[in-house]
Amino acid sequence: QCTFNYLENGYYTNSHEKYLQGKTVRVRCHDGYSLHNNQNTMTCTEKGWYPPPICVRVGTDCFNLPSFDDAVFIGQKKKSYRSGEEVAFKCRPYYQLNGSNTIQCVKSKWIGRPVCKDVSCVNPPRVENAVIQNDRPRYLNGERVRYECIGTYDILGDVDVTCLNGTWTKPPQCKGECGPPLPTDNGDITSLLTPLYPLRSLVEYQCQAYYELQGNGNSVCQNGEWSEPP
Question: What domain of life (predicted)?
């Protein structure tokens, strides 16, 4: 007969009972412990319990921190890490953390991974008749690019675009000056005539004698061209 009195580093609900030879009982070890050869049962033999009622610590430590292309380890590296221990990572430049930045050692295995999303921007939008002042191959999230219109072109909209989570905001436009306004049949321009007109300039027309105005009585300079005269 075998008597079950005590299970070191584990527990069994029916302790102090007696068992006949050949009887097998199931036991449970504490986390990080196991019976010999990772068994979870013991059998009563003529020499007593086999395996012995002792839960021994199993190899649950983790070694060799995993490496990630877009994240780097924070802290001092160690030779080994206990089961349940967590380590932290941070995202590399141009990346942003999306979720937890830790992984955990669980029974000799690393569980989890930091998720780093690429939020950088490349290729700022090209604007006709403009140059980029600080053009680079790649930009961090939140960085700005400034445009400058060439020659006599005027800028419309924000002079900067911003990299937001991998996408550029709306770029400006560069609009040009206009030459002399377009003539119209049976009408005259009443505004002062000049060789060049700034963007959004407006000239007014009036009809000659015996003619009546139809439509708008002016023309506007838009992107280097005049709108259709009356």
Answer: Eukaryota
Q: What is the distance between the alpha carbons of residues 49 and 86, in angstroms, rounded to a whole number? A: 38
User: How is residue 104 annotated by DSSP?
Assistant: E
pTM given for the model:
0.55
pLDDT digits (tens, 9 = 90+) for 209-219: 998 888 788 89
Q: Using CA atoms, how far apart are residues 179 and 225, in angstroms rounded to an integer?
A: 8
Measured between alpha carbons, how far is 18 from 33 in angstroms, rounded to an integer? 25
* Cβ pair 56, 34 in contact under 8 A: yes
- DSSP lists the bridge partners of residue 97 as 116
**Cα 1 from chain centroid (whole Å):** 65
Asked if residue 183 has a cis previous peptide bond (ω within 30° of 0), the answer is no
H or E segment at 109?
strand 109-111
Cα separation, 110 vs 105, whole angstroms: 5
Sheet with 102-106, edge to edge strand ranges: 71-74, 86-91, 102-106, 109-111
Which of 151, 169, 168, 171 lies closest to 159, judged by CA?
171
Token output for 181: 């306004």
Go through the domains of the chain in sequence order and give each one's CATH number.
2-57 (2.10.70.10), 71-118 (2.10.70.10), 130-175 (2.10.70.10), 187-226 (no CATH)
C-alpha span between 201 and 193 (Å, rounded): 11
C-alpha–C-alpha distance, residues 189 and 58, integer Å? 97
Strand partners, 146: 160
